[in-house]
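## retry 2 of 3
previous attempt timed out at serialization; input unchanged, resubmitting
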Amino acid sequence: MKKLLFYLSLPAVLLLGINLYNYLTVKRFDYDKKIESLDIKVDFVELNKQFRVDNIEKVFDENKKIANYYFGEGDKNRTAVVDVFKKMYENEEFASLCVDVNKEFESLDDFKKELTYAFKTLKFYHNDFKIPTVYTIISGFGTDLYVDEDIVIVSLEYFLSDKTKWKSKKPQYIAETYTPQSISTKIILEIVKRLVKFDNENKTLLNHMLYFGRVSYFSRVALPKVPEEVVLEYTQKDFQYLTEIENVIWNFLKNNQYIYSDNYMVIRSYVGKSPFTQEIRLDCPGNIGGFVGYKIIKSFMNYNDCEEKELLENSDVQYFFNKSKYNPLQK
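## retry succeeded, writing output
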């Protein structure tokens, strides 16, 4: 009898699922049109193609925002900074780096289009979001990325493809997530971290997991064509591995009673960038708590008809967790 009732109810469940999918698809399409129609202008300044030994001060004078960043208040560091830039551009090896960078990034049209849509999305969901000026530079492997509410500075050499000889000094597991396709993602992640509310009173691992999850999921809303592994800052291989052992990871965190742990070392071990998680296996990537946090938020969004804006404004982690119906053991 129970089996008969199950089969009788199955069509209704499937129909409900199809209707919900169609509703959410139409809703998403409607939002996309509204986002695309937003009239915003993003200023992109390709300083990587402007700086030369003989025009450094002129370029800084024409770009006050980045000049303020480098020179400091009252131009107190102007002379020292200009001298550093001149020596850098006189260096033959740096000149070779510039040639390779400008060759690979001859056109930034795709990047500009992707980031403009992402900024429109952030403005759509968070009206107070201020559109920053975006500068691309070659810093000689200085700071890779700087983001504040007024400016974004991208050192393009960090994002060169593997076919070049240039390598940063970042650890391999971090450096391999810097690709020509990941520039927009790195920028948006930094901005969204500031927009998503964090419950400072909740000291648990779960709070940190779901903060990471909400940041990652909302970043994918702003960058819909970017693969999950890029937003979560994994290689495709590492992301696939974590996906295959997701139930193992969840059992590990749950059985060791880490989910509601407020131990700082537990949080540090399982949320945030790290080369591996030796408690699982030496070849298991790091940030397993962040990975599961993203999966929980993804499950929450699949099961609930809610606005993406809620991910920014609601910091109640127990609400997200309970309504996510997350259970990788059923997969």
